[in-house]
Every structure is written in C-alpha cells, then in structure tokens.
C-alpha cells in the first residue's frame, strides 16, 4: 500500500500551489486529479489578477508560489487597474493565453521533485480517531500523514443550461458525488453555492470595426518580483455593451432561467453576477459593459467577460446577436451555471486545517471563495501547513496586518461566508501598508525560511530594501536652494516656487511632483531602479498615513498576541452571555483578536475574557 507525507486532491489553482509548496518543502507529495490534462485549466475567464486579486498574486509570488511567474510566462496583455488612484488600491491584471498556461502548469508539476501525479477519483477521506489516515479511490487506498482537499466546483456539481441540468464538476467532466457524501458523513456542515461562466465566441465572426479597442500597458509590469521584463507579444481586447434590445430579450425569457425559475436554489456570486441578474437588479442601467477577451495568441476563441449566463442556448444566441459587433457571431460553447458543495469555512482554523479532523486541510472554492487568485492563495497556505504538520513544526499563519492572504483567510475562518467570497481592496483595513509593490519586502523572508523562495530572489529583495532606505535617506538629506533655475523647473512641474532651502523629501510630498521628474531635472544624481523608484515615492508621499497605520497595526497585534487555549471551557467564564459562549465554543478562535471579529462578540466580552485569562494565569505566550 502506497504512503505519502501529503496527498493533494485536485489539480486546479489551489491544488497546484498546495502540491508544489509541499513537495518543495521536502515532503513526499501525491497530487490526485481526475484528468492530468486539465491541471492548471482556466475554467472561466482568461485572466489573472484584478482589484484586490492582483495583491493576492503578488503575495503568492513573494512567498514562493507559482501563479505570478506562470502569469508572466503566459500573459498577453498586462494592465494596472486604478492607476489614476492611490497606491493602496492599484492592482495588476493580465490577460492569459489559457492553453499556454495549462501547458506551463502541467509541465511544471510533472517535473517537480518529490511530487507524483496520478489520475483517480477520490471517493473517501479515511479518518480514524479524528485524524486523517489517507484516501480511498474506487480502486485502492493510499495512506498519508496529511490530506489537502482542493475540489473546486466538483463536489456534487450540477450544471445548468436553461431548464435542463445534469451532474458535472465542469463542462464535460464528472462531479465528485461520493466524496460529497463522505464529507457530510464525517460531520462537516455543507453549503451549496452557485457560479457560472460565459459563452465562448468565434473571433473570426466578430465585427470589430464598431468596437472600442483596449490596449495593455507599455511597458508591461510583471506580476513576479523575479521577472525582469515581459517579452511575449501583447494583443488588445475590445469593448462592447448590452442595450435596451438585449435587456428586453433577457426579461422576456426570465422564466427559462434556472435562477429565476427556482431550479437553482444556491447562493450566487454577488460581485460577478449573471447577465440576467444584472438586468433585473440594475434595471435603471441602460447598458452594461462587455469585454471581449482573447483566450490566447493562437486561439480562435473570445471570452465575452460580463455575459455570464445559464439561459437556454437559443436565448444566449439571441442575446449575443443583439450586441454591437456580435450581430453575426458564432458560438463555440454556450455559457452555463453550476451549483457545487462548500464546506462552511468557520469549521477550519487559519491554517486551513479542519477543526473536526486533524491533518485534513481545505483550500479553494470548497471554502466558499470564487476566483483563481483566492484559490491559489489558500492552496499555498494549506500546502505549507500540511507539510509543516507532517514535520511537527509550528504552523504558518498570516494575520490581517501581514497581507491580503491573511485578510482572506481570517474573514473566512472567523466570519464565514453565506455567498461566494471575492477579495477586494475595501476588505483590507491596512491596505496602505499592504500594497502590491512591497509584497516582497513584507513576505519574502517568510518564504525563504520555509524553503520556497530561492536564495538569489531573497538576496534581490534584501538589495531592494537597502536601495529604498538609501533613496529615502538621500531625499531627506539633499536640499534645494531657491534660485531662478530651480524655481523655473518647479514651475514647469506646476509646483509652487520655494523661497527658502527645502529637502527633496519635502518637495516630493507635493501631489504634483514625481520622483521621475526630480531625477529628470537633475535634482538627484544617483540612479534608481524602476521598482526602487516607485517604492521610494510611495513611502515618502504617504509617510504620515503609513506611520499612522503602523501604529494601528501595533495595537492590533497586541490583542492578537493574547492566545486562547484550544480546550478553554467558555461556560466557566462568568459575565459572558449564553449566545457569546456558544459562538466562542463553536468557532474556537485562536486569540482575542480573532474572537473580537466574531459577529455578536462585544468589546465588553473581550474585556471579560482578558480578565479571566489573567485570573487563571494563562500566559499569552502559551
């Protein structure tokens, strides 16, 4: 009988990161997938990143994960979203060649040391005495010290097109029904969520002449901190819109929508609704934007982002033909909705280990999230912790003040979710210090110590930190003295003139002044690398706000340090209401900070807990 340190179930974005992390940390790892050819398959849109999601990808990369490097290798259009806004909300996004990405990930996984890939359908998680023993397929049992379940939409998946539906985990792929039954039998609370995808269009049947073109950024800014530059050819997207005729077609056919006919009863994605949902819920909008995104350099397929639907095929075709540029379009594959099972995420610890079953970890859509990036982030954390658990080492937990990944996991495990969870910058309290540009500075040391970040990349981050410090120091010490040439240059920058000597730091804090302009004017003689320049400018311009957030983080971390013992009997804590005792007992927070974020747990309750812990001499370092 085979035995592995870690078994990863699933070859999607979560499964890939989990398996690679575990293997790279020296644990013998088995990836089980129904089909090796679908490893790294992008089931929905051909893009990685986006608002809040780009930060996740940068953090995955900083910790030694793979998604950022893969996106750079397969990206065909890169853009910085919210580029005109503050640094805290700027996010990277890239169009991806889907076939290339699939091939890239398959090749990477197949060549990874300590990683075995096998085709099989897992039917059961083997558990004894509240601890994982391994898994069972329809043919064999395989033992493991830890198991990471990354099942995506396959758990009892049901695909809907119009009023017709059938079992399936993805189009033309079977659902995992036995495993869904097994998880319920193990005592886990299961929810049902719904997501969907758009039709795929033949690019050769689109009339582009009336459409707005959208080019990428030039030069393209890579995702990975280890990527020098993007050299692959870049191609544009196109923009079109729904219209009143489109909306009438949808409204006239709502009775054929499984969502509005009551066939789909699961909760859908609030922030990525179907087109029929948009038309009903935003009836005042005369049109909705559709991005026509190419699926690859050599692909004839276009993904009409914004047209997710589960309406019947003939209605989908009528909708498409009502839209400018798509009047004669041919459909290669119609859109569909899919319902799937989710493990209610408050049943897992911030390590992503199940509270009910030791050494069983969950990652990705099974935890109630939506999106490649959210899945990959969880996969990385679960894979790391599965390997650490096997080695008997301390777990890896990122808190809310350390990264977007920390916010994502804390939200899920503390608050839970009643709908598919998507990451946004607005969810992050400390977003001014948790930016894309400094993810490597924040996290690469952790990745290096885990054995996931290579020596040369970590030394590169150290050099960047040094260069940023030197750049800020230079700006603090260098001074501008008033004079005709200096003031003439400032005037060209549309900045006020100076009457007394000022530091370059003071000048750079002016909103209209950029560091590039100061360099171009010759006020600074020392050259700066692009990533250093951007980092220095942000740190200087937002220094007051950054210092304030750092103080807030210090206060946050003080309460996070006060740990709660796993076996604490909350019924013995006098002064807590029965409701709060029940919630604390059910959710089992690891520290007072996590307890404070549970719905209904009041500041007064946290004070009572703090007093109780002191009374029983429970040290916060335990």
* Gross CATH architecture of the largest domain: 3-Layer(bba) Sandwich
Overall structural class, as computed from helix and strand content, comes to: alpha+beta
Tell me the strand percentage band. 15-25%
Tally of alpha and pi helices: 20
Most strands sheet: 7 strands, mixed
CATH first level of the largest domain: which class? Alpha Beta
Average pLDDT rating: 94
Unreliable stretches: none
How far apart lie the N and C ends?
A: 39 Å
Amount of helix: 25-40%
The count of domains is 5
DSSP, total strands? 22
- Name of the CATH superfamily of the largest domain: FAD/NAD(P)-binding domain
Global outline: globular
Radius of gyration using CA atoms only:
26 Å
Report the CATH topology name of the largest domain.
FAD/NAD(P)-binding domain
Show the helix and strand layout.
Layout: E1 3-9, H1 13-24, E2 29-33, E3 47-49, H2 53-62, H3 67-74, E4 75-81, E5 91-96, H4 98-111, E6 115-119, E7 122-128, E8 131-137, E9 141-149, E10 158-161, E11 164-167, H5 177-185, E12 190-197, E13 200-202, E14 212-214, E15 237-241, H6 244-252, H7 275-281, E16 289-294, E17 301-305, H8 313-321, E18 331-333, E19 336-343, E20 360-362, H9 372-391, H10 404-415, H11 439-450, H12 455-477, E21 479-480, H13 484-492, E22 502-503, H14 504-508, H15 515-520, H16 530-541, H17 543-560, H18 578-587, H19 592-596, H20 603-615
Parallel strand pairs: 1-2, 1-9, 2-6, 9-20
Antiparallel strand pairs: 3-5, 4-5, 7-8, 8-9, 10-11, 10-19, 12-19, 13-17, 13-18, 14-15, 15-16, 16-17, 21-22
Helix pairs in contact: 1-9, 2-9, 2-11, 3-4, 6-8, 11-12, 12-16
